[in-house]
């Protein structure tokens, strides 16, 4: 079988890992603890995919300094809330990654969470045999939706943008791929809406992770 893509650059939260409840619970807890303007769970979910401090500064009017305080508070609550089983894989993820790996397609992550947090999930969820490269928000100067996470990954593998596919659940992932000149695929089951993915210019939109095999 001839592969259309040599490299898949995957988002983690909302694409591979079902972490929405954990993240939004922790965001709401942070907002409450700091006495900030209240926001709904849905409003919090729409921020997933941005670097942590920006999740708060873009959702609630505040200074960058306050955004960093929100991020620090969030991290402390997250340590308490991130119990075993709090994040699970979406249906079909492990089997699909195994099939793609067997077809000698490079698989990597580009996430807005920290490298250490991302690596821990890759290990704990049994994805290490398939995923050969990780980029966290702290690995780059300009995280998603900027192109740098993808550009760094392309250089690592020595692969041209046209041979790579960025896969994610939010507009931030799609914009990151577009900014780097790669192909893009949105997933409809995550934190972003199909309308948002289409507006961002996703070339493909799939309803299950297993559909990646058909691309």
Automatic annotation (TrEMBL):
Asked whether the UniProt record includes Hydrolase among its keywords, one would answer yes
- Per its UniProt entry, what is the enzyme's top EC class, as one word? hydrolase
Determine if Hydrolase is one of this entry's keywords. yes
Pathway linked to the protein? Organic acid metabolism; glycolate biosynthesis; glycolate from 2-phosphoglycolate: step 1/1
Gene Ontology annotations of biological process type: DNA repair
The record's InterPro entries line, in alphabetical order, gives: HAD-like_hydrolase_sf, HAD-like_sf, HAD-SF_hydro_IA, HAD_2, HAD_sf, PGP-like_dom2
Q: Name one matching Pfam family.
A: HAD_2
Q: Which Gene3D superfamilies match?
A: HAD superfamily/HAD-like, Putative phosphatase, domain 2
Q: Sorted alphabetically, which keywords does the UniProt record give?
A: Hydrolase
EC number assigned by the record: 3.1.3.18
The GO terms this record gives for MF are: phosphoglycolate phosphatase activity
Per its record, the protein catalyses: 2-phosphoglycolate + H2O = glycolate + phosphate
Matching entries from PANTHER family are given as: PHOSPHOGLYCOLATE PHOSPHATASE
Q: Which family does it belong to?
A: Belongs to the HAD-like hydrolase superfamily. CbbY/CbbZ/Gph/YieH family.
Q: Which NCBIfam families match?
A: HAD-SF-IA-v3
**Name the UniProt record assigns to this protein:** phosphoglycolate phosphatase
User: Source species, please?
Assistant: Segatella buccae ATCC 33574
């Amino acid at each position: 079988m001839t592969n259309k893509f040599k490299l898949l650059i995957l988002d983690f939260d909302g694409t591979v890992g079902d972490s929405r409840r954990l993240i939004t619970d922790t965001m709401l807890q942070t907002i409450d603890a700091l006495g900030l303007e209240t926001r709904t769970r849905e409003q919090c979910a729409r921020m997933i995919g941005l670097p942590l401090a920006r999740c708060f500064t873009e959702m609630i009017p505040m200074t960058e300094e306050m955004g960093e305080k929100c991020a620090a508070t969030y991290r402390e609550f997250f340590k308490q809330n991130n119990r075993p089983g709090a994040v699970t894989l979406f249906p079909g993820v492990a089997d699909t990654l195994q099939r793609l790996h067997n077809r000698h397609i490079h698989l990597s992550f580009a996430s807005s969470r920290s490298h250490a947090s991302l690596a821990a999930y890759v290990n704990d969820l049994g994805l290490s045999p398939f995923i050969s490269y990780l980029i966290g928000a702290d690995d780059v100067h300009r995280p998603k939706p900027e192109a740098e996470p993808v550009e760094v990954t392309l250089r690592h593998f020595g692969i041209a943008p046209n041979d790579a596919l960025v896969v994610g659940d939010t507009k931030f992932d799609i914009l990151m791929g577009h900014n780097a000149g790669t192909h893009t695929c949105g997933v409809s089951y995550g934190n972003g809406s199909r309308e948002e993915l289409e507006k961002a210019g996703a070339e493909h939109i799939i309803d299950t992770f297993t559909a990646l095999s058909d691309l």
